[in-house]
């Protein structure tokens, strides 16, 4: 088993090493409106191992975005996510393509991402359209994505984007709503990040023991005491995600139930 892990580790390292010059080459080909980022998902908190160009402000050692968390959560079912329009927290319109990297077993362990400054391209398009006398209608506002070097800010952004946040403060959620939140965060890949359980507990104003209890219920498909209707389908349990990446947040739960 240890020999297999070592072989897969060396194989993944070789794939990433082979892609490093591709990162520079793609960014140089498409020019200053392009950014190319290479991710190693074995280190979610510092997944960026190579970057060329500057569209999202990423740097080596930076964290994955919500897009990466989502892909990591899908594991072996992850597919290319191409030409997705999103917006950075500073307002830059970005067209983003994320392509998962797989080893010889089919497990996802990283991703190659290409980000295009769609705002700059859009301005050029509008100028050409105006010169040609072509009208332009209002474009739909794309969702915001946190591209940062701090994984904590990315986790916070995923939590704050949840629909429950729009109606009341986190402290006002009942047990059923907290369980729904934990299910959705598990599906989005948040709990693959180290110490994310403690971070969510702090945001909700609950104890660490309570947070682990909610996470266990979410993974096992258990309903909350006051939750009406049938339970949601269970999230994928286990010490490892479907991608084969260790679930670093799945530490043994501390003794005691919800506070």
UniProtKB/TrEMBL annotation:
Cross-referenced Pfam families: HTH_22 (PF13309), PAS_6 (PF08348)
YheO-like domain location: 16-125
Amino acid composition bias (Low complexity), ranges on this chain: 220-229
Lineage: superkingdom: Bacteria
Region (Disordered): 217-259
Domain Transcriptional regulator DauR-like HTH as annotated: residue spans: 155-215
Name assigned to this protein: Transcriptional regulator
Native source organism of the sequence: Streptomyces composti
Taxonomic path: Bacteria, Bacillati, Actinomycetota, Actinomycetes, Kitasatosporales
